[in-house]
Design brief:
141 residues; alpha+beta; N-terminal domain of TfIIb; GMP Synthetase, Chain A, domain 3; 2 domains; three-stranded antiparallel beta sheet; 3 helices; 6 strands; 38% strand; OsmC family protein; KH_dom-like_a/b
Length: 141
């Protein structure tokens, strides 16, 4: 896997991912309305959310659960000192589907956390405390 990062101005950088996607990352994201993209730490949080969400939906589909939507909310705390690493992250899954089984959803969340989500496992090994919760919404469709 490779990526290319190019400095544009101040704290703004463009990126091109190995798969060809392009975007901006901006260290001034929280300080400036002119920021060109999310901060690097926001991208790490988004990457974690995408990784674990993919796992949960995939596991549920393989278990023949009728998932129609999955929203994942992440809340992170960072150290007060430099480096301001993540210290805690809570991941909350809101899974919508038809007759979803509680045990299957709980199992999917646990398998992602304990076995499949590379981002989650990497962060935990680095000392980040990651917790999970979920809720199920019955689909009316």
């Amino acid at each position: 896997m490779k990526a290319t990062i190019e400095w544009h101005s101040d704290k703004a950088f463009s990126y091109q991912s190995n798969s060809g996607f392009k975007g901006f990352v901006d260290g001034a994201a929280k300080d400036s309305a002119d920021a060109k993209g999310p901060s690097p730490m926001e991208l790490i949080l988004v990457g974690l959310g995408g990784c674990t969400s993919y796992d949960v939906v995939s596991i549920l589909q393989k278990a023949r659960q009728q998932v129609v939507d999955c929203k994942t909310q992440l809340q992170a705390e960072r150290a007060d000192t430099v480096p301001a690493v993540f210290t805690k992250i809570h991941i909350h899954f809101i899974v919508t589907g038809k007759a979803l089984k509680e045990a299957q959803v709980a199992r999917a969340v646990a398998l992602s956390a304990e076995k499949y989500c590379s981002a989650s496992l990497m962060l935990e090994r680095g000392g980040v405390e990651i917790t999970h919760s979920h809720e199920i919404i019955e689909s009316n469709d």
